[in-house]
Amino acid sequence: MAMVQHGEGLYGWERAKAMLAVALAVLLSVLDYAVANVALPSIAHDLNIASSQSIWVINAYQLASLSMLLPLASLGARIGFARMCRVGIAIFLVASVLCALSHSLLELALARALQGVGGASIMSVAIALIRFIYPKEALGKGLALNGLIIGTGVALGPTVGSLVMSVADWPWIFWINVPLGLFALGMASFALPVTPRSEKAVDLAAICLTVAAFTFTVIGVDDLVHGGLFSALALSGIGMACWLALLRHQRGSSEPVVPVDLLGVPSFLIAFIVGMTGFVASNFFIIAMPFTLETVFQRPVTVTGFLITPWAVGVASMSFLIGRWADRIPAAQLSSLGLAITGCGFALLWMLPNDASNFDIIWRTWLAGSGFGMFQPPNNRVMMLAAPRGREGSASGLVSVARLGGQTLGALLVASVFRFSTHASTLCLLCAMIIAWLGAGLSLGRTLRLGSKR
């Protein structure tokens, strides 16, 4: 394993091996998240639970991932990004076996939460590792390749899940993680670079407060969406108290677990908000579109997955192509154009007549996904380059928080729209369009606010 200092990067075969190890780890995390969605009806039937309860198979993973991202990014800076990635893969493997052996919703939800911790261990340091694998002048290519892997995992997830479920029971969607995970762990054991470590002690109090703050806040907002006003206020109040205690506790720390100091850098803050805004818009589309296809366009369930797949194909293909420009063209231009195109795709879908053909739906969905693939790599590049030396782990964690936090907020807002609107699926497309264009405007505005060419 090569020792890499800040800004040096790897070259040739060393870079290829290291990036393959990161790609396998990221694919393991993303693919399993997407595959599990397909199995929810079968899980609900076999465990004799309501469909609404089966959603906790997804929520447990997402909540654990979101609450653990920043603590694990902080820990990764201290034990080494490569070691944290290997620990994450190992946790993910153990959790996958526990998922496959589960016989109740409680067992499965707890195992999925452990999977979420493993996934967060991987995702919290993945972009930090890419920062060391690629030199500064080629960082955009590495981030674009990471976007390609994530897009590919999202695209393959429903297909892999459907294939597995057609020949086996739902536990096998977790058993298939074992060979991929072992291969990923093997690659990560010798190919990832050794990076400088922080000498700061682990702040256990800050880690506990961070986990509690995220957990209580998200569950509280979720309760509010579902009408539990008293419990929502109580849980959200505990969450806010944890946030205040955390900010007070880590005041003056040079490497805080929640790196609010990085959010004080204008270029970083705007890129973070733009990133979160983009993922809020995307989740309005991703969650609501299946309902739109079934209720508005009258498509059978067997066809909806096929009609949504062009989104992931567009994201993956554009993420690959954008790598050659992400290091040359300012993010204020590329990311803004990408989100504007995404908004146009949503607008064209929103304006479709009820008798639209499959082709009409497919090319508009692909257009929206292509714009999204254009927006991500340059925007992530801004965040990673804005972070001071030695803060790569914190920056990597916040990049993932922008993604997962935006997805979580988007899911909560979609649930709220579905609760209060009789034309929820169509309204969600309109919201996705507006939010994407707002993000594009904010992204474009950084040229005026910062005068930056990054």
TrEMBL record:
<feature type="transmembrane region" description="Helical">
    <location>
        <begin position="227"/>
        <end position="247"/>
    </location>
</feature>
<dbReference type="InterPro" id="IPR020846">
    <property type="entry name" value="MFS_dom"/>
</dbReference>
<dbReference type="InterPro" id="IPR036259">
    <property type="entry name" value="MFS_trans_sf"/>
</dbReference>
<feature type="transmembrane region" description="Helical">
    <location>
        <begin position="172"/>
        <end position="194"/>
    </location>
</feature>
<feature type="transmembrane region" description="Helical">
    <location>
        <begin position="55"/>
        <end position="75"/>
    </location>
</feature>
<feature type="transmembrane region" description="Helical">
    <location>
        <begin position="87"/>
        <end position="106"/>
    </location>
</feature>
<feature type="domain" description="Major facilitator superfamily (MFS) profile">
    <location>
        <begin position="18"/>
        <end position="448"/>
    </location>
</feature>
<keyword id="KW-0813">Transport</keyword>
<keyword id="KW-0472">Membrane</keyword>
<feature type="transmembrane region" description="Helical">
    <location>
        <begin position="303"/>
        <end position="322"/>
    </location>
</feature>
<feature type="transmembrane region" description="Helical">
    <location>
        <begin position="112"/>
        <end position="134"/>
    </location>
</feature>
<keyword id="KW-0812">Transmembrane</keyword>
<dbReference type="InterPro" id="IPR011701">
    <property type="entry name" value="MFS"/>
</dbReference>
<feature type="transmembrane region" description="Helical">
    <location>
        <begin position="201"/>
        <end position="221"/>
    </location>
</feature>
<keyword id="KW-1133">Transmembrane helix</keyword>
<keyword id="KW-1003">Cell membrane</keyword>
<feature type="transmembrane region" description="Helical">
    <location>
        <begin position="424"/>
        <end position="444"/>
    </location>
</feature>
<feature type="transmembrane region" description="Helical">
    <location>
        <begin position="334"/>
        <end position="352"/>
    </location>
</feature>
<feature type="transmembrane region" description="Helical">
    <location>
        <begin position="143"/>
        <end position="166"/>
    </location>
</feature>
<feature type="transmembrane region" description="Helical">
    <location>
        <begin position="268"/>
        <end position="291"/>
    </location>
</feature>
<protein>
    <submittedName>
        <fullName>MFS transporter</fullName>
    </submittedName>
</protein>
<dbReference type="Pfam" id="PF07690">
    <property type="entry name" value="MFS_1"/>
</dbReference>
